[in-house]
Specification:
This protein has helices spanning 3-29, 57-66. It has 68 residues and is mostly helical.
Length: 68
């Protein structure tokens, strides 16, 4: 590859990168291009007497697997 071809390839690369960056900036500024985000999940109130641990069937099954 000769020297002029290298310069041309480098210029094309930088021109392409600049074009992609400019298009991204324009897309971000368009008024209809905003995404709607899901509302944040609501947290449960903590139990009055503390804790919050529940002995469910799933937990009981786990405890059975830990017995030696």
């Amino acid at each position: 590859m000769s020297q002029p071809e290298k310069k041309l390839a480098r210029r094309a690369l930088f021109a392409g990168a600049a074009t992609v960056g400019a298009l991204g900036a324009v897309a971000a500024l368009l008024p209809g291009a905003t995404r709607e985000t899901a509302p944040a999940p609501t947290l449960k109130e903590p139990p009055e007497r503390g804790g919050g641990y529940q002995l469910t069937d799933h937990v009981k099954q786990y405890y059975k697997t830990t017995l030696v």
